[in-house]
Amino acid sequence: MAGNDLVHVVDDDVEVRKSLGFLLATADFAVRLHESATAFLATATDDIDGCIVTDVRMPGIDGIEFLRQLRARGHRIPVIVMTGHADVALAVQAMKEGAADFIEKPFNDDILIDAIRSALDGRNRANAAHPQSAEISGRLSTLSDRERQVLDGLVSGLPNKTIAFDLGISPRTVEIHRANVMSKMGASSLSHLVRMALIVEAKD
């Protein structure tokens, strides 16, 4: 690992901080632990290195507001947001605010480590690992009307059950359409799917 592969863990739960700190240290990252977004911002220099892993739900400044304040101060450091399974809407909002990725808890250790490495590798080549707008648009055109409706629901941060209710279909049918959307779009995760949709949205 390069010497500047620093990971800032921002979480109000001390046990989570310690656990993540231990995990990332064993993966050869340099780690700094912060008890809150407020504490991080109070000590942040003009040139923050590495990447940030933060919980979306925190007292005081939550993960979404944290992202906004980082961007308002001109910090381009990649941020990975950890969300609960029921926080899809918050995760999508985080992506719209510029998060590099989001992962749902509980998560496999390797998923977090891979997300961090991807974020660090992509610091100077935003969106380079993802299809460009024209290619994404081409993939969107292969979706059926129902698949597009399901995609719109997902990008709006709606859970499967809500999408099913809105469309008058069963949650199981939504799951099938969701799997088809992921396959046709070449999305490796929900965050990847949301990111691609936002790239096209930004071009419109």
Structure write-up:
With 204 residues, the protein is α/β, with parallel strands linked by helices. It is built from ten helices and five strands. It has a five-stranded parallel sheet with strand order 2-1-3-4-5, sandwiched between helices. Mean pLDDT is 87; it is low at 124-131. 53% of the residues lie in helices and 12% in strands. The chain has helices at 14-26, 37-43, 63-72, 88-96, 109-121, 133-140, 145-155, 160-167, 171-185, 190-203; strands at residues 6-10, 30-34, 51-55, 79-83, 101-104. The chain has two domains: 6-121, Response regulator (Rossmann fold); 133-203, Arc Repressor Mutant, subunit A (Orthogonal Bundle), CATH 1.10.10. InterPro entries: CheY-like_superfamily, Sig_transdc_resp-reg_C-effctor, Sig_transdc_resp-reg_receiver, Tscrpt_reg_LuxR_C, WH-like_DNA-bd_sf. The modification 4-aspartylphosphate is found at residue 55. Residues 6-120 form the Response regulatory domain.
Chain-wise SSE layout:
Elements: E1 6-10, H1 14-26, E2 30-34, H2 37-43, E3 51-55, H3 63-72, E4 79-83, H4 88-96, E5 101-104, H5 109-121, H6 133-140, H7 145-155, H8 160-167, H9 171-185, H10 190-203
Parallel strand pairs: 1-2, 1-3, 3-4, 4-5
Which terms summarize this structure?
single chain, 204 residues, alpha/beta, Rossmann fold, Arc Repressor Mutant, subunit A, 2 domains, five-stranded parallel sheet, 10 helices, 5 strands, 53% helix, elongated
A few lines on this structure:
With 204 residues, this protein is α/β, with parallel strands linked by helices. It contains 10 helices and 5 strands. The radius of gyration is 18 Å and the shape is elongated.
